[in-house]
């Protein structure tokens, strides 16, 4: 197996030994991935049996499946400029170029090539959806159950239209030696925040009452009364909601958008005040 960029070669013995070392160090038995994504399941085997599997299989790349089965999660990281990908993670304090292990995946066809990186983390029994981080450009959380490379290897092209794929450890820092780090709490917090914001947007768009999307935008502490009054005016004046329905909508906006939420009694006072104003003005 030849590295098409640097002229290195990965013999069957080298691939087998790196797969065994990864298995022994992490207690995760890697799968053997053949070209065209034929997957050989070697779960439940010992590290020595893993070695034998890769010695007997030509042109296979060691990979793992994310999710509870392996207790890992992975990021697919695309670095387009100094504000995206690995740089975005580094600026957020979630990646260090000098210490953290990661995989580089280079896909090439004809005279073109493109690369991205894969970062693995320990995540235990948690499962995750595929998620493109809005706050980290170029960073994608992979869906639990996806296949990701973990060791050096090369999958050659079998046709002019078929790309070759090269898998290497960045800066030579492998998981067998450096270990798989724990999933940073900050990444989980960002995921949960962005998911909640996405749910707010979807609820606003799907609201049968015609409540417009801006009603569910976040409200800072200094503007809670002003914003709730303005939004109450929209509910009563534009959507013509009855008072009880507008009050329930304001309570929801207060709970989900205000930081921190106002006392429900204050929200009720705002709703009554705006309702009376619209009654007087017709």
Describe the model.
37% of the residues lie in helices and 19% in strands. The model is unreliable at 1-8 (pLDDT under 50). It is of the alpha+beta class and 282 residues long. The longest helix is centred in the C-terminal third of the chain and has 22 residues, at 185-206. The chain folds into 2 domains: 12-182, no CATH class; 207-281, no CATH class. Helix 6 (224-237) runs antiparallel to helix 7, helix 6 (224-237) packs across helix 8 and helix 7 (243-257) packs across helix 8 (264-281). The chain is elongated. The protein has helices at 12-26, 47-56, 86-91, 175-178, 185-206, 224-237, 243-257, 264-281; strands spanning 31-34, 38-40, 61-65, 72-77, 103-109, 112-122, 131-132, 139-141, 147-149, 153-155, 164-169. The chain has 8 helices and 11 strands. The strands form 2 sheets. It has a 7-stranded antiparallel sheet. Strand 10 and strand 11 form a beta hairpin.
Structural class: alpha+beta
Low-confidence stretches: 1-8
What is the strand content? Answer: 15-25%
Q: What's the overall average pLDDT, rounded?
A: 86
Main pleated sheet: 7 strands, antiparallel
β-strand number = 11
Measured distance between first and last alpha carbons: 80 Å
Number of domains: 2
SSE string, helix = H, strand = E? HEEHEEHEEEEEEEHHHHH
Strand arrangement, largest sheet? 7-8-4-6-5-11-10
Tell me the radius of gyration: 26 Å
* Helical content (DSSP H or I, runs of 4+): 25-40%
What's the total helix number? 8
The 3D shape can be described as elongated
